Amino acid sequence: MPKKRSGGGTSPVQLAAKFLGVSVLAGAVMAGIALPAAGALGLAAKGSVKGFDDIPANLQSPQLSQRTTILDSQGGQIATVYSRDRTVVDLKDISPYMQKALVAIEDSRFYQHGAIDLKGVLRALNQNAQSGGVAQGASTLTQQLVKNYFVEEAGDDPTKVAQATQQTVGRKIRELKYAIQIEEKLGKKKILENYLNITFFGQQAYGVEAASQRYFSKHAKDLSLQESALLAGLVQSPTRYDPVNDATEAKKRRNVVLQRMADVHDITQAEADKAKATPLGLHVSQPKNGCITAVKGAGFFCDYVREVFLNNPSFGKTQADRAKIWNRGGLTIRTTLDPQAQESVQSSIKKHVYKSDDVATAATIVEPGTGKILAMGQSRPYGFGKNETQINLSVDKSMGGGAGYQPGSTFKPIVAAAAIEGGTPATQEFPSPYEMAYPSPVSICDGKVWKDDPYKPTTLTNEDESEHGPYSMKEATAKSVNTYYVQLIGDIGICPVIDMAKKMGVNRADGAAINQAPSIALGTQEMSPLTMASAYAAFADRGTYCTPVAIESITQTVANQKKSLPVPKTTCSRAMSETTADTISTLLKGVVEDGTGTPAGLGSRPSAGKTGTTDNRYAAWFVGYTPNMAGAVWVGDPAHKRQMKSIRIGGVWNDKVYGGQVPGPIWRDMMNGALQNKPVENFNLVNIPDRQDRGDGDGHGDGHGRGNDNGGLANGGLTGGGLTDGGANGGQTGGGFPTPSFSIPEGWIQGNGNGGNGNGGQRG
Questions:
Q1: What is the pTM assigned to this prediction?
Q2: Is the pLDDT of residue 463 over 80?
Q3: How far is CA 635 from CA 141, 143, 516, 666, in A?
């Protein structure tokens, strides 16, 4: 048995034999001799490679991971994101001192030997044999470059990284063969350039340009002698010689490099001594990576862009494919974000809601006709600290958002659009009492019906007892009358509303199906601000819905070559007729002129919109539009625990929060700023006659009741204070409308953790 040293480990004789084997192997590789599957070196036992000839002939240089730059629509930088902070530069843009320092300390015979330095192997063999350990390596810069290629290909997978760096003869064989190929293909200067761009310098910096910026806040071309020596010394062990955390060790290592440069005559001894006497001279820049660095509060929009990339098949067949492209970076992504609109959104949010408030706000603006997302912001900043969050309150759960929020009465225009599109006139009247039971049965999709409990019917009320009909659609919309819209959905059925919502891109934020119950007329299904803004943009564009888009173009840099990637385009489709959309705009224009939304009015600029406040005031909304822009503002507690009663928001005390009271002014201010210097455009309005005077009778009706066999609600079926029996001759006036004595049980209708429909409290 071979003898070992008393302290254990391998003896100098064994070390000599081992390194002699490596040198013989190196010579064999250089000669191109095929190695057997098993032989004196035991390659099969090492389990890494069958033989030299079985290694693939060509090693492709990996696309180095670089930072990705995200721009707004005007070309301004929003943020930089990266898996590895790296900026690839040409050799001419790297200080000559840096080039010489690296070669001197890592491979001083770089320009004299080929891919493998046999002289260096023998020197290392001698040094290691004398020291009784591995005191000196023998890898050339070219071999180190190959190893870095393997590590780069492994990415962030720890298993693959371990395989790329494992100390086996098999890996060494691959490294040697590829080193020979690279030497022949690239030449010395390109090898040095690639090495300086790929190697890790610590502090999240990959490549010399990132390292120069990190430690000295300057470009690599401007590095001085002592700065270059410091960086060159980091390559051997970025952690051990980290100048930020251990200046003493870093300086020792730097001075070793300087002395080595003098020894190989790159600099004079006097230059080396002078440089050794200087301090490290650090001017550290903190790593700036990710959407947390975004300007103008665009961190959540930046995160949304990333989600779009990772989830859209345009960028790769599988999510793994897309993630690989994203992590490699080198992308320049031009987005739809309008800097003026974004700044206005954040300014308005900051003015009206503080990040430390018990509740938060989120706002989004989109462009009608294109689907472009122009702005996206919220009161709780993007981050990890107190009163910060990484949840994008403006978008659906699948895109980095939460479970959504009940939109309240902002859903009512969708019900109105479904009714008008189906033939219901905007002059349609309903009794609209202060309190009533939900209509039952009501038709839903697939020929089915929704039925309430006949023994305990569910009731709802309007916001105020003074609100009782009869009302026409125009007046009911302006006042946001709950009972009117429940009667309307009872009249037309639920399925037309579900279909209209689908055409307008309206879906639940959690991805579940919209619950088919009459309560949807009051906005009981959780939705996101982006969804609501995009839906209202269909009204603004006279009935055409466009899917929201955030990316305009992407340029990818590969091996200093730039190419354009295909990006997802908006898909526009007709959701309703122009007449229907124009009718809705006419109705909603009245909301901001003489209804619940007057605090959101834009003065002389035509606007339309709808307020929304949910039961128990867990959420309040304003969603509105001009012909140029559509925007949605939500205010509430994302955790759905704090009711907005007796609450201070943005320094202002509120007994009760309404949609027009807090969200309305946020919407007004953000839209005014976003639209500044933009053309003033007008709506295509329609004539909706005001409702005729009610007179003094209790049984007012239009004489055209069309009730069903069950006495159910129909056009004209419920009138004034009486019930028309809807017979063939227009029916007769029935008795007084019954006032139900039941209130809605707590959480009875679709709560999903955010409360049910409640006791009819939905209102603008």
A1: 0.74
A2: yes
A3: 59, 59, 26, 10
